[in-house]
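User: Please predict the structure of the protein below. I'd like the answer in structure-token form so I can feed it into my own downstream comparison script.

Assistant: Understood. Taking the following sequence of 65 residues as input:
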Amino acid sequence: MEKAVELLKSLVDIPSSSGNESEILIYLEKWLIKEGFDFVVREETFVAGQIKAIVNNGQKKKPLS
């Protein structure tokens, strides 16, 4: 749970006005790589209500909680 809280705090601190969320995407990409997750970025933009994520941690790491 502590990792999830720290991740959320970091994300909240990143400026991300509507249409300018690329810094969040870059941060998440680096964080997921560091934590050993496999993931795919399909588009480099966020659209409210249309965000889909498939994150597979396989058996490499424990869940965030």
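That's the full token string. The mean pLDDT is 74.
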